[in-house]
Specification:
Layout: H1 8-13, E1 17-28, E2 46-50, E3 53-59, H2 60-65, E4 74-79, H3 90-99, E5 106-109, E6 114-119, H4 123-140
Antiparallel strand pairs: 1-3, 1-4, 2-3, 4-6, 5-6
Length: 141
């Protein structure tokens, strides 16, 4: 794929974060067997199989509709750079920039982009931190 970026500073300089307006929650089936999950899985933005159960990222409204726990709404920030799967440094730079401001994050790296989930209340501060990190890195190049 043309345009894939592999070098760390170049990935950070080109990350172009975009805040998704939809709030999301992380949920799990916890292998309890008490619920029919067939209707939930197709609604998930992401699904990951762990030894303890299946983890899902669902839009908040969908999770509420399935009566799932919604106690930690998160916002997704998509990093616009086409980061290489073997690129080094983007996740560390993002996590470091957010940690410096006391903002928790959960990163899901997909094929084309990285997606950073932050607590809903911290979304604007997270965007400011990422833009500042991007600007500093772009200035250094």
């Amino acid at each position: 794929m043309a345009g894939v970026v592999r070098e760390g500073a170049e990935m950070v300089a080109g990350m172009n974060p975009v805040l998704d307006p939809v709030p999301y929650v992380f949920c799990t089936d916890a292998r309890d067997g008490a619920r029919d999950w067939s209707g939930v899985f197709p609604r998930a933005l992401a699904l990951f199989r762990e030894d303890e159960g299946i983890s899902l990222v669902l839009p908040l409204d969908e999770a509420r509709g399935f009566d799932l726990p919604c106690d930690m709404p998160m916002r997704r920030i998509t990093l616009g750079v086409f980061s290489a799967l073997d690129g080094v440094g983007l996740t560390a730079a993002v996590a470091g920039a957010l940690a410096a401001r006391g903002i928790a994050c959960n990163v899901i790296a997909a094929f084309h982009h990285d997606h950073v989930f932050v607590p809903q209340a911290d979304a604007d501060a997270a965007m400011a931190a990422l833009r500042q990190c991007q600007g500093r890195t772009a200035d250094d190049q």
